[in-house]
Each structure stands twice: as structure tokens, then as C-alpha cells.
Write a structure and sequence with these properties.
Elements lengths: L4 E3 L13 E4 L1 H10 L7 E5 L4 E11 L2 E11 L5 E8 L5 H12 L3 E5 L10 H21 L7 E2 L5 H10 L2 E5 L7 H11 L5 E7 L7 H9 L3 E3 L8 H15 L9
Parallel strand pairs: 1-3, 6-7, 6-10, 7-8, 9-10, 9-11
Antiparallel strand pairs: 2-5, 3-4, 4-5
Helix pairs in contact: 2-3, 2-7, 5-7
Length: 259
């Protein structure tokens, strides 16, 4: 069974060596002691959300601080091919369900998209609160999945902003029920011609009512391609995670020798 994971600030584990003591403080320490009821001698992972993981044993446990002796310190490389879920805002918290599941499955970043047909609207103070809630959602999901990296929640974009992101991406795929080519075919074709080095793929998911034809045209004019996930129409909360699973398999992100 994997060790329980607790987060600390990015960079706070830098320089740790075997045998050194690290003190976890704040809400994470209180959760470790009062909820998880960790006690001296138990194994635990402390991660900084930016790829560094310290594995060690609890030396002392108090709500004010969890003292852990460092056993090993590892830095997990970023995958060569990063997956970014562009999730249209959706009602009923379906957008949050999508990013939560996608985080557990390994997404690297998420982008809130205010599409033409999105019923939910992020405006004023609500936009800041909603963005913070997305950050909290992916952080909790990353902890659940024992991840060392917390996916980035990028600023919300409208279709004009998404068009600019599509133009800058190495590949942007619109998941669309009217597409002709399967997602697997699109990804395999791109992979066979893509160059070496870090690359980024956008997976674009529309809201409940789907992506408007005008938006599809605008995004495709900037270089996006459409792809079909399957023969059934998936909910906005399901399409993104399904695409992450398929893309991770096709691109070798889940293989023992992959990134």
C-alpha cells in the first residue's frame, strides 16, 4: 500500500538529505495527526506539488507539527508530452468533476473555458472564487492520487483567448461527436511526425450543449483538429477524463519506460 501524502510549499524540500528532519506544519500537519492519526514510526510521503517527493518516517506527531526523518528524496521529471484539459464551464459542478477525475488520471494542467454555450458564467468576484475552487479541487485530487505534482489551473479564457492558446500549442484536439477521425488515429498520426523535446497537447471539451459550429471553425482556423472519442455522446464531465486515459496510453505516458 502506498504511503499517505501531504503537501508542503514548493521548494521547501530542496536540499533535504537522508537522516535530516523535516517539520510539516499548518493544516496538513493537523490533518495528518487528527484525521489520519499518524504516529511515530509510520511511513509517509511529503511532496511539494512541483515534483519533489520526500519519503520518510514520522519521528513525532503533534497538531502543531509533524516531524519526519528523511529517507529518500526524489524529483519526478515532467512528462515530455504534457496534456492540458481545456474544460468548458458547465452547470451542476460537472466541470469540477471533470478536472477532479482528470487530475487523478494524470492531467498536467487545466484551463477553464467560457464557451458560447456555457450556462455557467464567471464574472467579477465569482470568477476569483470559482478559480480558487478549481485549484482546491485539483489539489485534493492530486493528494488522493499520491501525485508529486499538482496540475496548474491556468487563467480562464473566452474563445478568443482559447484561439490564441490553440495557435501556440503543439497539437489542439477538439473532442466532437461529428468528427470523422478517432482520437487514437489523430494522436498516433501526430506522434509519428512530432519532433523531440517538450510538447503540449490541448484536449478541448465543450459544455452541455456542445461546442458551437462557429467556435469549431474559429479554433480549426488556428490549427485545431476535431477527433471522435467513440460512438456514444459523452457528458461534459466524462469526455475529458476519457480522452486523458486514451492519450496517456497512446503516448506511452503510462508505460514503465515512458515519461
Amino acid at each position: 500500500m502506498s504511503n499517505p501524502v501531504f503537501f508542503t510549499a514548493a521548494g521547501s524540500l530542496d536540499g533535504m538529505a537522508a537522516g535530516q528532519l523535516f517539520v510539516l506544519e499548518g493544516t496538513e500537519a493537523r490533518h495528518a495527526v487528527t484525521v489520519k492519526r499518524l504516529s511515530p514510526g509510520e511511513a509517509v510521503d511529503i511532496v511539494d506539488g512541483a515534483g519533489t517527493r520526500m519519503t520518510g518516517k514520522v519521528v513525532s506527531a503533534a497538531p502543531s507539527g509533524l516531524e519526519v526523518e528523511c529517507g529518500t528524496l526524489t524529483v519526478e521529471d515532467r512528462p515530455d508530452i504534457r496534456l492540458v484539459l481545456v474544460q468548458a464551464l458547465a452547470k451542476g459542478d460537472r466541470d469540477e468533476l471533470a478536472i477532479e477525475t482528470a487530475t487523478e488520471l494524470g492531467i498536467d494542467a487545466v484551463v477553464p473555458w467560457q464557451s458560447e454555450r456555457s450556462i455557467v458564467r464567471w464574472k467579477g468576484d465569482r470568477a476569483a472564487r470559482a478559480h480558487a475552487k478549481w485549484e482546491s479541487t485539483v489539489s485534493a485530487a492530486a493528494k488522493q492520487a499520491r501525485r508529486a505534482r499538482i496540475p496548474e489551473v491556468r487563467p480562464a479564457v473566452d474563445t478568443a483567448g482559447l484561439s490564441a492558446a490553440v495557435e501556440a500549442a503543439d497539437l489542439a484536439v477538439i473532442l466532437h461527436e461529428d468528427a470523422v477521425r478517432p482520437l487514437r488515429t489523430v494522436l498516433e498520426g501526430w506522434q509519428s511526425t512530432a519532433g523531440a523535446g517538450p510538447r503540449e497537447i490541448l484536449l478541448v471539451v465543450g459544455p452541455e450543449g456542445g461546442i458551437s459550429p462557429r467556435e469549431v471553425t474559429k479554433l480549426c482556423d488556428k490549427g485545431a483538429v476535431t477527433a471522435l472519442l467513440g460512438h456514444h455522446v459523452l457528458r461534459s464531465s466524462t469526455a475529458g477524463p476519457a480522452a486523458v486515459v486514451l492519450a496517456s496510453d497512446v503516448l506511452g505516458r503510462w508505460t514503465a519506460t515512458g515519461p
